[in-house]
Write a structure and sequence with these properties.
The chain is mainly alpha-helical. It contains ten helices and no strands. The longest helix is centred in the middle third of the chain and has 25 residues.
Length: 241
């Protein structure tokens, strides 16, 4: 059996890249036969490649339904780690969530087909939940590192990460149910603005209890110091007091 070359075309032919050929074949069969009644052998036969080629790209049949999540998760991790530590943390994780939305928006038709498929197959919904959990843990891990000096840093990190994921998923599912109609970027921005307004450190006020009643704290900072850092220094001083 002649297989497509690694550069994306078969010898003398115009086939798409091998990975794309597998995804196309898989979804064609899923829609025709159903996910449970489609085997890996069926997929590779239709794609015109060998069985080993399938597992070179996808660990399981479920993974072919979510082909870009590993790369997107890696991109998100790299984005979060590439900061200089001066970024407002909540805004940073919101920007990271936008990377995931851009992945879905890059191919609306495929995203809608996948959504329809996952709604009808319970095993795929479980797989999807596991993927979402990994995104949430990545966001929470970044926030925990940034907020480690806060007395409630771990709790705050987990709550913010969950809020970002909830906002993202609410917009994504609404958009997919509509058949990918409308400007999903604008909808996403609105949802994430709500998260930043609720949890953004630059907008947070120090409570009277944390301030120790009538105590007065004076902090000297450079004009360009990020507001979240000013707030952090104030809270740290109050906790020490």
């Amino acid at each position: 059996m002649n297989e497509p070359q690694e550069n994306g075309t078969a010898a003398g032919g115009g086939r798409p890249p091998m990975r794309d050929a597998l995804i196309t074949a898989a979804f064609e069969l899923f829609l025709e036969r159903g996910f449970e009644h489609t085997t890996v052998e069926d997929i590779v036969r239709l794609a015109g490649v060998g069985r080993r080629s399938f597992f070179r790209y996808f660990p399981s049949k479920e993974d072919v339904v979510f082909p870009d999540h590993e790369r997107c998760l890696a991109d998100m991790t790299e984005f979060l780690e590439s900061g200089d530590g001066e970024e407002e943390p909540v805004a940073r994780v919101c920007d990271a969530a936008r990377l995931v939305m851009r992945m879905y928006a890059a191919d609306p038709a495929f995203s809608v087909r996948r959504y329809q498929l996952t709604r009808s197959v319970s095993g795929l919904r479980s797989h999807e939940l596991a993927v979402v959990w990994r995104y949430e843990r990545t966001l929470a891990g970044y926030l925990r590192r940034r907020l480690h000096h806060w007395s409630d840093g771990t709790l705050r990190a987990d709550v913010v990460a969950a809020s970002v994921v909830a906002a993202h998923n609410n917009v994504l599912r609404s958009w997919l149910r509509s058949g990918a109609e409308g400007d999903v970027t604008e909808q996403m921005d609105h949802a994430l603005q709500l998260v930043c307004a609720s949890w953004g450190l630059g907008a947070e006020n120090v409570s009277a209890d944390a301030a120790g009643g009538d105590d007065v704290v004076v902090l000297v900072a450079k004009r360009r110091t990020p507001m979240w850092r000013v707030v952090r220094e104030i809270e740290s001083t109050l906790e020490e007091g």
